[in-house]
Design goal:
By secondary structure, the chain is of the alpha/beta class. The strands form two sheets. A twelve-stranded mixed beta sheet has the order 1-2-3-4-5-7-9-10-11-12-13-14. A two-stranded parallel sheet has the order 6-8. Strand 2, helix 3 and strand 3 form a beta-alpha-beta unit. Helix 4 crosses helix 5, helix 9 runs parallel beside helix 10 and helix 12 packs antiparallel against helix 13. The longest helix is centred in the first third of the chain and has 21 residues. This is F-box domain-containing protein.
């Protein structure tokens, strides 16, 4: 009964989903569509889901960390885009969730508008609904934040992180941040959008002093420029995952890393883009003295020379694994060693598919494969 009353009290600007497992893309849903999983209907005990756009759904069958999905309705009426007491109470439950995802609900085709109109709508919903989320108390258990690239762009365009606006955020304990685009807005933005530079995300990252892992999937919304600003804003950063089709070149990205003293602390580097690589590019990787794991997934027609990799291990005593995935050749090249100074072990796998690589190299699941699955 309490759950039923909570659901009936919720307004129409959010959709909330509790989950202990990754959402199946074939069953994704939100308040703007009519596809609600059958088990969600059972969970809410007969509540008329068509009358509310915030839904509490909790899978109890798994021991995975609890994951809360918060969908913002960018197309709701302006007065509805406010954080109500019910949502605020759910967000600050102390024993609840460790992962919080914030995205925008997908509208039906009848509300598609020009890119500038969508841009304005996202800026509006970010200022009215997203900022209050970060200013309300959040549970100490929250360690991972996942935000859509569209929401990030909206936040940047509203200057919401200006010092006179923010007096301390509740996300300061977050250790992992993932930013990736929502597919429904991608075609619209790629044609006429107003992309921002990665360096503009500095205004968000400075409020995450404990951040150790950053996954940035830029595509066409966020240009991969100003990476040194990201590193300067994250003194505790140890893992950096970059995925983009908007890189100017591999060399251009890696060269940015050496401009920051903070890059010397990186232990994991993943670079996923569609460009060729040269020995000169690997020379910039050699300037990461603490790096232990490197993965490159490149749309390159150049075969990686073993001598390049041997030289890399010679210059980086901390390096343990180097993985090069070639979607062009459908192959994966692996080089590893069990300790500094140990003999190198080489392997060439006849696949570039992550599910297969998980089976072949399960020890790299938490380092590489989970993140690459998220970026797929």
């Amino acid at each position: 009964m309490a759950l039923r009353e909570a659901l009936e009290d919720i307004q129409t600007d959010y959709s909330i989903v509790w989950d202990r497992r990754e959402t199946d893309s074939t069953n994704s849903w939100c308040s703007q569509c009519n596809s609600v999983p059958k088990e969600a209907e059972e969970e809410v005990g007969g509540v008329d889901l068509s009358s509310t756009s915030k839904i509490l759904h909790h899978h109890r069958s798994s021991s995975s960390p609890l994951h809360l999905y918060l969908h913002l309705n960018a197309f709701a009426e302006e007065e509805e885009n406010n954080l109500d007491a019910t949502v605020a109470d759910l967000l600050r439950q102390s024993a609840a969730y460790s992962i919080l995802s914030i995205e925008c609900c997908r509208p039906d085709s009848s509300v598609y508008r020009s890119c500038s109109a969508v841009d304005d709508l996202l800026s509006s919903v970010c200022s009215r609904a997203c900022l209050p989320i970060f200013k309300h108390p959040l549970p100490p258990s929250l360690t991972e934040l996942r935000i859509s690239a569209e929401v990030c762009v909206g936040l940047i365009h509203t200057n919401w992180l200006a010092a006179e606006v923010v007096n301390g955020l509740s996300i300061s304990r977050v250790r992992s941040l993932s930013i990736s685009p929502e597919r429904w807005l991608l075609p619209l933005w790629s044609s006429s959008g107003r992309p921002v530079n990665a360096g503009n995300l500095e205004s968000l990252l400075v409020h995450l002093p404990c951040l150790a892992t950053l996954s940035l999937c830029t595509r066409c919304l966020i240009r991969c420029r100003g990476l040194e600003l990201l590193l300067d804003a994250c003194p505790q950063l140890r893992r950096l995952y970059l995925h983009s089709r908007a890189f100017e070149s591999v060399q251009g990205v890696l060269a940015q890393l050496r401009f920051s003293a903070e890059h010397r602390r990186l232990e994991v580097l993943v670079l996923d883009c569609s460009y060729d690589i040269t020995p000169y590019d690997l020379a910039d990787v050699q300037k990461l003295p603490a790096v232990r794991y490197i993965l490159l997934r490149l749309g390159s027609f150049i075969r990686l020379a073993a001598a390049w990799v041997v030289n890399l291990f010679d210059r980086l005593p901390s390096l343990e694994w180097f993985v090069y995935i070639s979607p062009v050749e459908c192959r994966t090249f692996v080089c590893s060693r069990i300790s500094p100074g140990a003999s190198l072990e080489f392997a060439e796998l006849d696949t570039d598919r992550i599910p297969v690589l998980i089976q072949r190299l399960p020890q790299l699941l938490s380092v590489f494969w989970e993140r690459l699955l998220d970026l797929a």
